[in-house]
Amino acid sequence: MESRSWSAAQSYCRTYHTDLTSIRSKEEKSNITLTLNGSVVQYVWIGLYRDPWAPWSDNTTSTFTNWAPSDPNNYASAEYCGALNLMSGKWDDGFINYKNYAFCFTAVTKQTVVKMKLQSEADMHSTEIQQQVSQQLSGLMLSEGLTDFRIRWRKVQSYRDDQLKKQDEDGDCKTEV
Questions:
Q1: Which residues pair with 61 in a beta bridge?
Q2: Whole-angstrom distance between the N-terminal and C-terminal Cα of the chain?
Q3: Are residues 21 and 62 in contact, defined by beta-carbon separation less than 8 angstroms?
Q4: 130, CA 20 to 30 Å: which among 51, 69, 78, 111?
Q5: In the chain, which residue ranges form alpha helices assigned H by DSSP?
């Protein structure tokens, strides 16, 4: 890993991970310092940028702050980026062109599987009907703000299919003697 400007570090994190890290608690700060304990790195870029300082670069907010006693001081009216000093565990504001290492995070995504059983007089194996139902379900999902989803059909043997199969095996009529 190489040291980069804050903008280049953010771009790298957004390309290969999720974003520069956000530190919203003492525990999150401790996790970072423990992760990098023993490295020769002194500063890492974090997701703070003066615009104002309140939201992190991933657009989350937090009331937790951990500035060094003299920071943020905006030295020379040009310190716009937040860095974590791994020696002190405190935040410093830094020049955008300083070269520090990036500390990225990767968001954990949660996958939810929803299974539905549809019963209808219509032929649910019909591609046309499946497309119509899929469009209606997609519209409902989008109206609820869900954009990352997949609808998949699975063919399940129905009771009617079982009866038709049994009739074919037994023949159409039974005659008792």
A1: none
A2: 86
A3: no
A4: 111
A5: 6-16, 26-35, 127-143, 159-170
* pLDDT digit string, tens, across residues 136-167: 988 888 888 777 778 888 776 665 666 666 66
* Domain range summary for the chain, segments of one domain joined by +: 6-105, 114-155
CATH code reported for the domain at 6-105? 3.10.100.10
State the maximum Cα–Cα separation within the chain, in Å, rounded to a whole number.
Answer: 107
Phi, psi of 48, deg, nearest 5: -105, 135
**Assigned token pair, 93:** 């504001």
DSSP letter for each residue of 44-109: EEEEEESSSSSSBTTS---S---B-TT-S--GGG-EEEEEEETTT--EEEEETT--BEE-EE-PPP
Considering only CA atoms, which of 107, 1, 106, 108 is closest in space to residue 44?
A: 1
What is the C-alpha to C-alpha distance for residues 113 and 150, in angstroms, rounded to an integer? Answer: 10
